[in-house]
Every structure is written in structure tokens, then in C-alpha cells.
Amino acid sequence: MRVRSVLAASAVTTSLALLLPATLAVAAPQDARATPTCREAGVKVKATKTDQRTIVRITVENTTRRTCVVDHVPTVTFGNLDGAAQPVPATTSRPYTLRAGAKAHAKVRTVERPGDPSARTVRTVSVATDPGHRGTSFGAGALGSPNGVKVYEPVTTWWHATQALADRALRRAG
Length: 174
Fold this sequence. Notes:
Layout: H1 15-19, H2 29-34, E1 43-49, E2 55-62, E3 68-71, E4 75-78, E5 86-88, E6 95-98, E7 103-109, E8 120-122, E9 124-128, E10 136-139, E11 149-151, E12 155-157, H3 163-173
Parallel strand pairs: 5-12
Antiparallel strand pairs: 1-2, 2-7, 3-6, 4-9, 7-12, 8-11, 9-10
């Protein structure tokens, strides 16, 4: 199985952030530097199945009364396998601001071809909003795969303000 480390992802220059439409940004990066990282207990992470067994929707909600930041790419890991889903497009770590009560959405593709003989099967998928957080684990059955989630070269979108934007980002990733 090839699951590449998030840290090994090729860096994209910060100028890319300036090219993103304003609807994708919740706050300007300079605001995020002064904003604290969301505590793990202050966010609620959900992962849900889709009509495709290889696609998982994830949502994070800031359940506190204060604005905080999460990493702009969710850290998605699979069972006891090494590595995490790679961000599409490739990027480096930076903050994504969540206002009090706000939600952000991302989409994960666990394997491109479910029948790929290189794919591994795991019983859990974990999602963390910061690489330093433990994350929330979801069983394969809850994600629509009672026999386990197939994983090979998984990818994840960045956090987006709406589920539609996350859906579009994964479609563009191919």
C-alpha cells in the first residue's frame, strides 16, 4: 500500500492562497496568526458515507463561543496503516479559521479503484483537525463499508465553507 506522509507533500507557494476565491476563505491569514488553535474538545468532527463506498464526507464544527483555527487540511488516517491522506491540491500546513458555531467541509477518496490488488482493508478511519490532535475514529460500518474500508493512495480536499465546494474540489482532483 502506498500512503504518503502529509509532510512529504510538495509545497505550494503561499501565492496560491491569494488566488483562491474569497468564498473559500473564512478569514484572512493575518487574522488566523493571532487566533488560537481549536482545542480538540472544542470541535465536533463527523464522517459520513456517500453513495460511493470509496468517498467519505467529513465536517468539523467549532462548538465553542470563540473563533479558533484548524489546519486547513484535515489529517485523515486509516486503521493501523502509516501515513495520511494526501491533500489535493498539494499544500503545506496553514491555519483555517472557524468562527464560533461555524462548520467546514472536506471530502476524502480512500482508493481510486476499489478492486485494486494493492489496496489494504482497514476497520477505522480517523479524522483530526490538527496534526497534533488524536482525532475522532469512525468504524467502517458507519461509513458504509461493513467489510472494511479499502485504502490505496488516499486523498483529501482542504476544508471548504460548503459541502458543494468540497465536492467540486475532489471532482477536480480527478
